[in-house]
Design a protein that fits this description.
By secondary structure, this protein is α+β, with helices and mostly antiparallel strands. 22% of the residues lie in helices and 21% in strands. It has a five-stranded antiparallel beta sheet, with no helix packed on it. Strands 4, 5, 6, 7 and 8 form a five-stranded antiparallel beta sheet that branches. The longest helix is centred in the middle third of the chain and has 21 residues. It is globular, with a radius of gyration of 19 Å.
Length: 292
């Protein structure tokens, strides 16, 4: 029993991890590694992807200063697209550049049942700023909650729901619904009792927009000068939550975290705000794309 304990980072990292992280890390001892909380397995292409591209993963946010000895990050060049409609800035979700987003005064909810992808379940978390700012969402697995709960300084008013040990238990819709409710209560409690900084990676990495309430209307001319639509190809084997450096036309390089909901193989569309030097997503990302 001791061996499984409560998914402390290391038992989690060594014991439950069949994607070759350890062999990778023994080969790349220069990589600054803190227990692998944000080296998250991806849906669909686990094995080949981990062997080839694992050294690009970071468990930092796009706004963090990366440790000097961290692995080099891939750089992709963005191309500019012509577009008539530009979204109002208030509807954009910043994924890189500018200042780190503020997390004081947000509420969370987990409205949907867990989404099964192969033998893995993801839970959608909606984050709503109380000041009426634009909401966003992220996808997390149970083990991400479990690793977060084990982090120093993270406290909640309710216990984390227990781990389900068998595949059968994990596939039972009743268990998943009960767990969804339990995780939602745990996260809401953690927001009350934990400094926002301790929850930043969990709530910000890979964030994407919620479906807009109303269709996008053509924007006022004031936005014409400052927002450009860019497109980048996501390198093979990279996916949501991964950090990527984007080279903007004009040579600026901005680090982003790849948002959820992008269909694998499709280009990522980003809005470049020239004045604030931020990259954002707007279009409603297809949540169901996770199933592919």
């Amino acid at each position: 029993h001791n061996h499984h304990n409560h998914h402390s980072h290391h038992s989690h990292h060594n014991h439950h991890n069949h994607h070759g992280h350890r062999s990778h890390h023994s080969n790349h001892s220069t990589h600054n590694h803190h227990g692998g909380l944000f080296h998250w397995g991806k849906h669909g292409h686990h094995h080949q992807h981990h062997k080839r591209h694992h050294h690009h993963r970071h468990h930092c946010l796009p706004w963090d200063v990366l440790p000097i000895n961290s692995a080099p990050m891939q750089v992709v060049t963005a191309s500019r697209l012509k577009t008539k409609n530009k979204p109002p800035k208030r509807d954009l979700i910043i994924v890189g550049g500018g200042d780190a987003p503020e997390l004081t005064g947000v509420t969370v909810k987990m409205p949907l049942a867990g989404l099964r992808c192969g033998d893995v379940t993801y839970y959608e978390i909606e984050v709503h700023p109380v000041d009426g700012g634009v909401p966003w969402r992220v996808a997390r697995r149970y083990r991400h909650f479990s690793a977060l709960a084990a982090e120093k300084g993270v406290r909640s008013s309710v216990p984390l729901p227990p781990k389900l040990w068998t595949r059968k238990a994990n596939e039972d819709p009743n268990n998943l619904e009960e767990r969804r409710q339990g995780l939602e209560l745990w996260l809401q409690g953690a927001l009350q009792l934990t400094p926002p900084q301790a929850l930043a990676k969990f709530l910000l990495l890979g964030r994407c927009g919620l479906a807009p309430e109303t269709p996008l209307a053509p924007s006022a001319p004031e936005y014409e000068e400052v927002l450009y639509l860019l497109e980048v190809a996501v390198p093979p084997g990279m996916g949501p939550d991964d950090l990527l450096k984007v080279q903007i036309p004009g040579n600026e390089v901005i680090t982003i975290s790849i948002p959820w909901g992008l269909v694998p193989g499709t280009p990522l569309k980003l809005w470049w705000d020239v004045m604030n030097k931020t990259l954002s997503v707007h279009q409603h990302q297809d949540w169901q794309a996770l199933r592919k």
